[in-house]
Each structure stands twice: as structure tokens, then as C-alpha cells.
Amino acid sequence: MDATDIILLLDSSVRLAVPLLLACLAGLYSERSGIVDIGLEGKMLGAAFAAAATAAVTGNVWLGLLAAMAVSTFMSMIHALASINFRGNQIISGVALNFLAAGFTVFLGHAWFRRGGTTPNLRPDERFSTIDLPFAQEFGQVPIIGEIYEQLLSGHSIIVYFAFLAVPVTAFVLFRTRFGLRLRAVGENPKALDTAGMSVSLLRYQALIITGLLCGVAGAYLSTAQGANFSENMTSGRGFIALAALIFAKWRPWQAMWTCLLFGVLSASQIRLQGVEFPMIGEVPVQFIQALPYILTVVLLAGFIGRAKAPKAIGQPYVKER
Amino acid sequence: MSARQPLPNWVTIVLMPALNVLLAFIIGGLAVAMIGENPLDAMWALFYGAFGTGMGWGFTLHYATNFIFTGLAVAVAYHAGMFNIGGEGQAYVAGLGAIVVALWLDQTHWTLVLLGSTAAAMVMGALWAIIPGWLQAKRGSHVVITTIMFNFIASAFMGYMLVQVITAPGANAETRTIAEPGRLPLMSDWFDAFQYSPLNITFFFGILALIFTYVLIWRTKLGYKIRTLGANPEAARYAGISAVAVIIIAMAISGALAGLMAVNEAVGVQKRLVVGYVAGVGFVGIAVAFMGRSHPVGIALAALLFGALYQGGQELAFELPAVPSELVLIIQALVILFTGAMGEMFHPVLERIFAKKIEAAPEEATTSTGEA
Amino acid sequence: MVENQTSSAQQPAKAAGSAHAIDLKKVSKAFGPVQANKDIDLTVKRNSIHGIVGENGAGKSTLMSILYGFYTADSGEIWVNGQLVKIKDSSHALELGIGMVHQHFMLVENFTVLENIILGAEGEFLLDSSKAKARDELTRLAKDYGLDVDPDALIEDLSVGQEQRVEILKALYRGADVLILDEPTGVLTPTEADQLFRILEQLRDEGKTIILITHKLREIMAVTDTVSVMRQGEMVGTIATADTSPEQLAEMMVGRRVLLRVDKTPAKPGDVVLEVKNLSVTDEIGVPRVKDVSFNVKAGEIVGIAGVAGNGQSQLLRAISGMEAPLLGDVRINGELVRFEGDDSAAKVREMGLAHVPEDRLKMGLVTQFQEWENSLLGYHDSEKYGSGPFLSVKDAIADAEKRIEMFDIRPRNPRLKTANFSGGNQQKVVLAREMDRELDVLVVGQPTRGVDIGAIEFIHKQIIELRDQGKAVLLVSVELDEIRALSDRVLVMFDGEIVTELAPDATERDFGLSMAGVDPKEGA
Q1: Name one GO cellular component term (chain B) (predicted).
Q2: Nearest CB to B238: which of C34, C35, C364?
Q3: Strand residue runs (E) in C114-225
Q4: Hey, is the C-beta of A88 within 8 angstroms of any chain B C-beta?
């Protein structure tokens, strides 16, 4: 494997990491506010369908993105209603949303497009096209640095740049703004906010709206930037890997980015490692690499490498009673 | 001291779930209307498909058997205060044990296959659940997250086993089929009414599992410990109940129950193991347990409802091809949402209706000297 | 009635003419069937320290939560500075200049002091500038009122006393003119409490109004100008502190003369039953809470452990009863060493003859959603008495529970009812009956009468004395000094995880006060 191979591997890692990163940041807002979100998968799936279907019908990918964000946010609001207003079980609500998305996307897909659950293929102008950074091609002739610029940094869709921009923005919001302070507080000790005269519900609703919007972008990326249509269960567990990444990153934005990139590398190298003989170990089954993010998260959770400490109030409905 | 008024038992146990299920069907009906079909036709097709014929009943009961196993699995763990969402993975891994033993013994007699594969399935399911249980008890990692992770690890592991290790020659990602002498008897062998349906002898195991769970939880000392730990871990510690032991035992029982699904589905019906054979049944178990309020009677009814939905959904695809069978998935999701996560929805309304009756018959236990 | 509700929020606090900071008129509040406050009238003069005293459950905290906008009253009027107001929520109360320091601090543990103080009163969207502003303000407040705390310290690293200062600073930072403190000394040592009182006096002298909620008469006498007494959700009366005595207040609190003494004969101590030797216990985060403690309890005597809450009594109880393995040291029952292995040592300790009435019945002693009979076998569930082998005999268990209901006069008399709906006193009786109605050698009992009505208190005290007279050893842990002195034959005082000294139950107030602050009176201070 030479430098070019590595750069190409990293390039595909970045592409694979983007939906994880967006969903992971989405989960970060929700969980920092004290609400467990195992429905990231479903929201992404619903959004992916909405984006592809809308783009196919209207021919406008931006409308697709808008629809994706709307659908995902709507689902997030169902979660909010169950978790905040009805003080329901947040895990059950998440499970239900995952099923709901799996059912509705195929149900409507079948009924509307009659292609066995997939949406029509999008033409290039109905998708998010790649953006070439200035002088990418010229600069690409320079070995290594130029290749990095051309292959790794340039030539991605706008959503990729958005995702990586969302990392510093999230870090700033979380640690340097009033909203971030309150968000962190409500996930740790909601009563502290309530007694200081702030609305716990309002803050959690705000957080879940952001979660919905970001999941919407993640879903739109899958079906209109990375892919060119929606197919049944196209998220295939990405929402759960994002959840694993969130825990692995200990609910912090920069760590979330690195973890998602790591998981991206793992998934990009699956194909390349097939049949490769490692010294001492021999051939590593693809399935093992597939399972690695989950195994790593279990190991981390078990406290064998550091400790993942969740926001203290997570998962408990806030009850203003004695 | 809750601001909520307690409701009569029958309202919380019967009326509220019924209303929630009704609402789920109404919204499902709206989805049908949305694609321009007649909701009543669709609902009738669902109902007739599930209960209209002996074959329909057979399928419904067969699916219900699966749901009884995975539902009880969730319920037992839940009584111990744990949320096992790993039924899916536990049933999947149990399939490996069940099929290996079944294929090993399939030239002998079906009784040996039944007993052998049942034991193997329970052991494998239990093992896959014990690890998250142990991690929760000893290392404090939350069982919800760990079991989610274990579902995916199971999926990768089983993918590897089925593609590379126990693959039938010439096949892709599945084992060979169980030979004739080892196949479990179908109910249709004894009762003509169930002809052409997959309902098999494992159904009786489902009934036994329901009775077993009832006795375990409410009529044994272990069940008492499980309930104490689930309701108040501090009180369990005070009472000298070992949380580590109870968590691990409860998870083992939970996993073993989930594992039984492999006998019904993989050994009994498919007669081989294929990739992804569990197909969401483990997750439906969550809904069944919640709707059934973790009580065997409730679970039996809820399993029947979901069994009917599954079977009705298949028939729907034939009767009304324009209505995709995923309608069932939607209704199922809504039932989970309404009964499990929004159970409080109808509470205020029902409170208003039934509040008067409560005031008329105040519980003598309530006193005015509460702690303020 | 002067209708001026809308403008009241904007009124500067001192512009109004009234000499009253707070006027409550006929305020009522019910939680379900429980009437927590009933037609309460209360007047609080500006620039005064006003005490509100009452037993647990008298409705003090509820009343103050209404004033702070945390609950809304069902009926009645609230006047602040002579203006009729309708307090919508806590932020509205803060606007009106009412601040509250809650009994359980409302702080975010992993935030700094500064972050906690600005939370909800940040002012600007960006934190950096609001933090800078808050830091200046904090320095000023610290100087004015003698409230020193490091603004950059994490809350989890602070002592309880310091956390309380943060809470006070939080209220002052928000411009509170009326400061409500709910049971502020429950977690403080006498010394820390005295420091708090000095701060409160300084605040009053600077023009603030203080409302102090407590059930401790000593504090009322020490620091307040006026005192109001509440009983069972009603206001009994308001008096100038100088014109009253602890005896009169106590009578007003409970509605009749209190039995200060429990009738009992001198103890006839026998052999040592419970022996604790060089015991050290750490809490879940590794902080030492019990430090090298040694003592013993003999048959036929009651040994009391006195001390301010949070000085290691809970950890001591947990170790002795087998709930927590000690770091070092031994516990022996009848000379037999307790082996702490696994997480079920409590069961082994029970078999050795120790019965344990835990200090928090709702957290430990009961599973409230269980029916009474199920709670009646908690801890003894493995006994053959309740079914053979692995099976549980519901019939036998219910029969046993019915017997105890009779013996201890537990109401309601139905073992099939959920204990959650029982009154505090009856819940405690369920626990006591379970622990006493068995073969036992030593009873370990924590806070036996917390949150229990007067009638049940007398009954429970009598049961404990009776047990002693039967020749059993009793270890009594309580933060109620009166209870310790009334029941015990010997008193050990605990401070900061150590046994400071042993006192006779009739030792002087001064000796108890000193030792509870960590000073051995015998060595002289």
C-alpha cells in the first residue's frame, strides 16, 4: 500500500464517516439534554426516504434536503412528546420510531413509486454534486500534499463540508454559549434549571429540534449525495454505530469527529482487507471488522479503557414533584 | 405523593391498552387512505387473514409462539430492573446451537432433535445474554447499550459462521436442511384444521414458558428476589439479595427464553439456519412485553395480537396487492409507541371520567399526614 | 383590593411603602388527597430574620415553594412589598426579589462555582463576557457579606458548607431581597451552622429579609427575630422570638406537651453482643467516611450514636448491617467475625442474629410498590417459614403478615394493600415488626422516628425499650439528639467519621454541642 492508496482509503473513510458524524452530533444534542436517543437510525432512514422521494418528484435536491429535515424533525418531536410530555420510556420510544421509519418508508415507497420499495434513480443534477476546491486539479500533481488536497480535501459534496463545520460549531455552542451551558446543565441536573426559573421542557425541545435537523441532513446525505436513490433499510445500522461513537467519544464533539473517522476507516478498509494475510494473525474476517466499532464500544463501556460517563440525568423523565 | 389519581385496575390493564391499540389501527388506516385504498378493506383482509381460516389460525399461533418467547425474555429481565433489547441477537446466536445439534442428531429421532436443540438453543441464548448481564453487574456498563451492541456483534458473528463455517455445500449463507427423521411434527399432522400451517410442537413449549414464567416470578423465592431488585435495588442490598447473582441469573433466563424461538422457527419450520432468520422478532418482543405489562397473561394476548398482525399482513399482500404488507410494521410501531412510550396519553381523560368513582370509595390507607 | 398585578414585577423592591416584605393571605395547597397547606396567613417584616418552624410534614417547605413559584397555590393571595402578585414561576419570583436556598442543593456537580452562579442569569448569549461580569460581582458580594468561595472550583470538590454558600451567592447574584433558606443546617456541623447564622445576620443588617425554615428550636432561638409555627398544614401562630421559649414553641409544634422523658429502668448490661473494632469505611467514590471506629454493645443496653447528619453514621450502619464491606477493621456478632464477601453479606449478618431497621425506610426498608405481606418478608425471604425449597408460599407469608399487623397495630389491617399508600408511621411499623418479630440478639436501628407521627413515635420508642428489657443489645443511630438522650444508656458522639467521645445521656447541652462539633469536652476546649 503506497501513499496514494492510503489517501484514497482515507478519502473513502471521510465519505463513510460523514453520515455517522452528523447522526452522532445529532445524538449529542439530545443526550446532553438528558434524553436517550436510540431512534437516530429511524430518523435518518425517514429523512433519506424523504430526500430521495422529494428530489425525484421535484427534481430539486435542496427541496429534498428540506423535506428530509422536516420529516426527521417531526419524528424527533414525537420522541419529545413521548419523553418530555408523557414522561414515557425513552428507549421504547426510540425503538418505536425505528420501526415506524422502517415501515413507512417501504409502505409509501411501494405505493408511490411501485419499484419494490426503492425510489427512482436521481439524475446527477438532482443530487448533491461534488465541489472542487480551487486549483485542485493543478495542485494535485504535487506528490502527497497535492494529492491530499485534491483527493482528500477537495471533491466532496457540500454536506461533507457542512458536517465537519458542524463539529467546531457544536463545540462552541456547547462550551461557550448560554444555550450550551443550559443544555449541559439540563442533562446533569434539570432541577437546578427549574429552580432557577428556566423551563426544562423548552430546553429539551430545543435540543431535540437540533437533533432532528442534523439527522435530516445525515439522511439526505445517504440518499442524495452518497447514493442516488432510496432503498429499503439503507441506513443499515449506521444510527447505532453513531450511537456507539457518541458513547465512545464520551459525549464530546471533537472526540465524536475522531471516533466517526476511526469507524469510517474501519468500514473503508473492510473491502481492502478481504483476503489479506496479516503476519502472526492470518486472515481477518470481514465480519470481525464490521463488528469492531461495537466491540470497541462494549470494551469502553466496561471500563477496560477509560470510563464513559453519561450525562447524569439521562433517560429519566423530569417530574416536577417531590 | 403523586398528583395523578390512581385509576381502577381494569382501566389501566384493559381499557388503556385497548384504546392505544385502537389508535394505532386508526392511524394505520389513515396511512392506507393516504395511498388511496380503503382502510376498512385492508383491516378486514388483515383480520380475515389471521383468523378467517384454520390455516390462518395456524400461522397466527405460530408467529405468536415466537413472540411469546421473545416477549417473556424481555419481561423476565424487566422484572429484575433491566431492559434487555438483545433478544434479537440472543435468538440469532441460539439458532446456531439449535441447528448444530439438530443437524448432528437428525438421523436419529425427532424427539432427540427437539430436546437436544432446545437445550442447545437455551444455552446459547443464555450465554449471549449473560455477557451483557455480567458487564452490567460487575462493570456497570448499561445493559441497554451493551445488548444493542451485542445484537450487531451477533449479526457479524453469525454472518461469519453461516458464510464460512457451517455453510451447506453449494449454498450461500445457510446451513443444510434437517433430514426427514429429525423434523419436528407439525400440528397439522394431528389436527386437520391447521393444514398448510407451520404451527408445530414447539407451540406447547410456548404455553409451558408462560406458566413457567408466572410461577418463577410470583411463586418462587428467586422471583421474589428478581422483583425486589427490579423495584428497589437499595432494598435488595439491604435484604442481602446479591444483585450480581440475580442480574446474571435473570439475564440467563431471559436469553434462554429468547433462544427458544430458534427451535420454533429455525428447527421447526425453516429446518435450516439462514442469515438474518430472526427478522425483528426479538424487537417485537419488547412491544409484546410492554403491552402485556410483563405479565404472562398479558404477554399471551399481546403475542396473539402481533401474531395476527404478522399473518394478516402476509394475507393482505395477496388480497390487496396495492397495500404493501409493511402496513403491519407501521401498526406495530404505533402500538409500541402508544402503549410503551405514550402510555400516559389517555390518562388525563380517563382520570376525569373515573375520578368521581375513586372519590366515592377512598382507600382507607390514605392519610392526611404525608411527608411535605 | 388594589388591582396592580401587572406592574408589580417592574417595581423596585424598596419603592413600595409597605413595611412588610411578604404577606400571605389564606394560602392553600393540596397534593391529591393530602392538604399540605390550609388557609395560611403569614406576615414577614422587612429587614428581619423570620423563622418558620414545624415538624416534618407540617407544610413549611410547600408554603415556601409556593412563595418561590415552584408550586402554584390552589387559592389565597400573595403580597410582595405591599403589591398583590400572582407568582407564575420561579423566574417570576426571582424578578420580585425572592430567592431560595433549597434543602437539597440545586447545583450542577460538574460545573464550576461561576457557571452555577450564572446559570439562568447569564445575561448575554456568549459566556465569556457574562462570566467576566459575574466574577466582578462575585468578588463584591464575597467582600460585602463574607461569603468566600473560589469561583473556579468544581462543585463536586466543595464541602457542603461551601456548596451552601454558592447557593446563597446564586440568590444574591440574582438580586434577591428576600432569601428563603429551607432546613439550611441539616447537613452542617454546629460550627458551620454558627458561621451561617453570622452570615444571615450580616445579610439582614445590609437590608435583606431572611426566611428560615427549620424544625430545630435551637436555631430559631439563636438567630431569628420573629417565629411562626406550623402544624399539619396550618399556621398555629407568630410570636417575637424574644417573647417565647423552646418549651412553648415545642408545645405549639406538636399541639400538646411533649414527653421529654421515656419511662425506663436502669440498664442491666450483660455480655458483649456487637463488637466493632478499628472499622474504616469509604464511600462509593473512595472518600473515607468512617475512620478507625471501635465500640461495643452489650446485651440489655441501648447504645446511641449522636451526631450531625453526614458524619459517617450512614456508612457505619451500612457496614455493621453487612450492606457495605469496610475498608479495614472487624465486626463481630456474639464473638463471631462477619465475613464481607460478595454483595449479599446482609443476609449472612441476619443469620448471625442481627436485625436492622434502616435509616431510610423508603429507600431501603421497603419496596413501596409491593403489598404489605411482601414487605413483611424482605430479608427473610429465603426462610423455610415462607415455603419449602425454591417455592414461595403466599399463604404462609400472608398469615405471618396478618399476625404482625395485629401485634404492632399496623393500619390499614390488610396485608394485600400496597405499602406505598401507608402513612409514614405505619410504614415504619411494618419494618419494625419484621425486624423485631424474630429470633435476634442485636437490633441496629437508624432514625427510627424520621417522618413519623407523634403517636407512632411513642409506640416505637416503647418497643425499643422493651426489646432492651428482654436482654437484647440495641444500637440506635439518630440525628435527633432528644431521641438519643431519651432512649440511650450510653451515647457515642460521631464527628467526621470518628467517635469523638462517650457521654452519659444526661450530660450537659454544652458537652453535646462541643462533641458534635468534633471537640472532646473531657479534654477541654
Answers
A1: plasma membrane
A2: C364
A3: 178-182, 209-214
A4: yes
Q: In this complex, do B2 and C35 lie within 8 Å of one another by their Cβ atoms?
A: no
Structural domains in chain B plus CATH codes: 58-314 (1.10.3470)
| All domains of chain A in start order, with CATH | 3-127+142-301 (1.10.3470)
In a domain, C241, yes or no: no
What own/partner pairs with CB < 8 Å and gap ≥ 24 does C159-163 have?
A: C160/C187, C160/C188, C160/C192, C160/C310, C161/C188, C161/C192, C161/C195, C161/C196, C163/C105, C163/C107
Angle in degrees, CA C194, C196, C199, rounded to 5:
115
Between chains, do B240 and C349 touch, taking CB under 8 Å as contact? yes
B135 → chain A, closest CA residue: A302
C124 inside domain = no
Considering only CA atoms, which of C488, C494, C490 is closest in space to residue C503? C490
pLDDT tens sequence across C332-391:
999 999 998 888 999 999 999 999 999 988 889 999 999 999 999 999 999 888 998 899
ipTM for the predicted complex: 0.89
Half-sphere exposure of C35 (CA within 13 A, CB side): 11
Residue B169: Cβ within 10 Å count? 5
Q: How many angstroms separate the CA of residue A191 from the nearest CA in chain C?
A: 6
Integer angstrom CA distances of residue C439 from B291, C354, C428, C434: 44, 9, 20, 11
Given a contact cutoff of 8 angstroms between Cβ atoms, the answer to whether B339 and B287 are in contact is yes
Spatial contact of A311 and A251, defined as CB atoms under 8 Å apart: yes
Full DSSP string of C437-477: SS--SEEEEESTTTT--HHHHHHHHHHHHHHHHTT-EEEEE
Q: Which residue has the cell 392511524?
A: B27
Q: Which amino acid does the sequence have at C496?
A: D
In total, how many domains does chain C have?
Answer: 1
Task: For residue C385, report the phi and psi dihedrals to the nearest 5 degrees.
Answer: -60, -30
- Rounded to whole angstroms, the Cα distance separating B177 from B99 reads 9
Task: Name the packing angle between helices A158-176 and A200-221 (round to 10°).
Answer: 160
How far is residue B122's CA from residue B257's CA, in Å, rounded to a whole number? 7
Chain A: residue whose CA lies nearest to B371: A322
Q: How far is residue C212's CA from residue C181's CA, in Å, rounded to a whole number?
A: 5
Nearest to A92 among B31, B157, B336 (CB): B336
Q: Using CB atoms, which residue from C90, C108, C128 is nearest to A185?
A: C108
- Position B358 pLDDT exceeds 80: no
CATH number at residue C489: 3.40.50.300
pLDDT digit string, tens, across residues C155-209:
988 888 888 889 999 999 988 999 999 888 877 766 788 888 999 999 999 889 9
Question: Chain B partners of A237 at a C-beta cutoff of 8 Å?
Answer: 152
Q: Would you say residue C69 lies in a domain?
A: no
C345: cell is 453479606
Domain that holds residue C277: 272-365+440-524
Q: Which residues of A touch C124 (CB under 8 A)?
A: 178
d(CA B302, CA C518): 62
Portion 162-191 of B in contact with A at CB < 8 A: 163-164
Contacts of A119 (CB under 8 A, 6+ apart): A49, A52, A53, A56, A109, A113, A223, A229, A230
Residue of chain B nearest A110, judged by CA positions: B324
Residue C256 has pLDDT above 70, yes or no: no
Record the cell numbers describing residue C369, joined without a space: 410498590
Supply the pTM of this predicted model: 0.85
